[in-house]
Amino acid sequence: MKICYLAGADSIHSYRWIKYFSDKGNNIYWFSLTPLTVGEKTKNVNLTEITEFPGKVLSMATLVYKVRKFIKNRKPDILHAHYAGTYGLAGAMTQFHPFIVTAWGSDVLLAGREIIKRPLVKFTLNKADLITCDAEHMRNTMIKLGVDGERIKIIYFGTDTNKFHSGERSKSLRQKLGISDAPMIISLRSLEPVYDVETLIKAIALVKEEVPGVKCVIGGKGSQEEYLKNLAKSYGVAESTLFVGQISNDVLPIYLRSSDIYVSTSLSDAGLSASTAEAMASELPVIITDYGENSTWVKDGESGFIFPKRDYERLAEKIIYLVRHEDLRRRCGESGRKIIGERNNYNKEMEKMDRIYSELGRKL
Predict the structure, then answer these.
(1) I need a labelling partner for 98 at 20 to 30 A (CA). Which of 116, 214, 240, 283 fits?
(2) Same structural domain for residues 8 and 42?
(3) Predicted local confidence at residue 53, as pLDDT
C-alpha cells in the first residue's frame, strides 16, 4: 500500500508506528513539521522548512498545499494523521479519503473543551473515515463531540516486549549516577506542569526520612526544569534527585532494568502512558496516579499501586512500602509484564491496524 502520514518526526510514538508499516514493505510517505530526531530514516518526506515560516496559519496553508499536491501526483491508498490538532486539521482540509486520525489525548481531552479549538477538533474528527485512540474515556469524549462511535477503534501504541524486559542491573550506569546499592526510583515524564513532578520531589523528601540513601532519577526535559531543581534544593533532596535530561530510547531499557520502582505523577493521560507500559514490561513495580483508565491496568498490590493525584504523602507511603518489601516488588513486576504482554503488545496492536488499513481500503 501507499500510506501517507502526517505526524511529528520528533516523536518516538509516531516513528515506531510508521516504521512498523515501512518494515512490512509498504510505500511510506511522511510529512512532518519537525525534523526527524529519533531512529533511522525510513522513506521520508520531511517538511522541516515549514517551521521557518512565521505564523501557524501560513505553516498550515503550506502543509495543506504540499500534501494536496503530493496526493494528486502520487495517489496514496491511505492518508493517516497522528494528532487531531495541526496534523489532523491539515489532513481534513485536503478532502482526501480514506482519511484516518489517531487522537493522542490532549488534542481531544483539552483542546476539545476550548471555545476556539473545539470546532476545529470537531471538524477534523468528522472528516475522518476512521479514528483510533488508546482509551475508552477518550472514545466517550469524542462521542460527546458528535462523532459516531462506530468510527472509533481502540488501538494502543503498544510496547516492544522484546526490547523492554527484566535483566541484570547495569553496575556501570548506577556507578555513573552515584547510586551504588541504594534504592533507585525512576520518573520519565516531561518536566511540565501537567506531569506534576513537583509531587514526586515532595514525596522523596518524606521517603528520605525513612530511607536515607534513596535516589530518584528524573528523566525528561521541560519548562519546569529549573523550578523543580530549585524545589529539590528547598526540600533538602538535591543530592537525592538526579535530573538526567531526556533519556534516549536506545538506553532507556538499561535505565529501567537498573531501577527498583517506577513513578508517574501525571495529572492527565489518554490511556496508559508509554513509559509506564515500558516500565511494566521491564518488570518494574509501578506507582501511578488514579486518573483516567490507570486503575484498569494497575491494581493495588498486584502490579503496583495507584495513588490520588497530588497526594505526595500517600505516594511516599507506597514508595517506602515497596522499598521495604522486595518480594512484593518482584511479584508486582512479574504481574505487570504479563499484563503488557497480553493487552499492550506492540506487534499485536500494529497487526490490528494493518487489518484496519486493508478493510478501509477495500470498503472505500
Answers:
(1) 116
(2) yes
(3) 39
